[in-house]
Amino acid sequence: MPRTTQDGESPPSGEAVSVRALWTAIAWAFVVASAVLVAVVLPAEYGVDPLGTGRAFGLTALSAPALAPIPPPEGDALAPVPMGAVALYPGEYKFDSREIVLGPYEYMEFKYHLAKDATMLFSWTAGGDVVHDFHGDPEGAPPDAAQSFDTAARRRAAGSFVAPFTGIHGWYWENPGGETITIRLNTAGFYTSAHQFRYDGTRQRREIRALDTITADH
Hints:
By secondary structure, the protein is α+β, with helices and mostly antiparallel strands. It folds into two domains: about 15-55; about 70-215, GOLD domain (Jelly Rolls, Sandwich), CATH 2.60.120.680. It is built from three helices and 13 strands, in the order H-H-H-E-E-E-E-E-E-E-E-E-E-E-E-E. The chain has helices spanning about 15-45, 55, 60-65; strands at about 80-85, 85-90, 95-100, 105-115, 120-125, 130-140, 145-150, 155-160, 165-175, 180-190, 195-200, 205, 210. The longest helix is centred in the N-terminal third of the chain and has 33 residues, at about 15-45.
């Protein structure tokens, strides 16, 4: 006579339990694989970081292709010569304006080459929440020698910067959300060149302007 439970139903057979356990294991494996894909693989391999785990654990840096070192700027470095309260520079004062558009989860770096002790004024605004890191890369040093100056969460900033070492100095902005964000950047100072680094690994040298390019008002 077959066994029954107290409510009169037959207990599940060993085969039914095995099938159920198999499907449960498959479902959990799918969940774990999906979590690993979103949290680890996408940030490390493709630079896509919807959960922010790649940024938190330094995985997004793994997806960036290795870039050649920034070549030294042409001409003399614009290092100041102190004369009491005045510092004179052997070159022209420049200014620059940029509009940077970041799609969902994209990032970009924009940096200027400054000699040690050279000064730059800046102002930028973002149309939404951004991950922000104002930092510098010493000339001739490896990428891990970068030094951060400001990483506070903010949508805008305006100030002045005196380069503590010769190299490229500027901003890393990352869009952590699903909406496109526009960043407007204005700078002025004694830099010699500008460089743009995109999330897809491309690097572009950008033209900057000097005072003699301004059209006089009449």
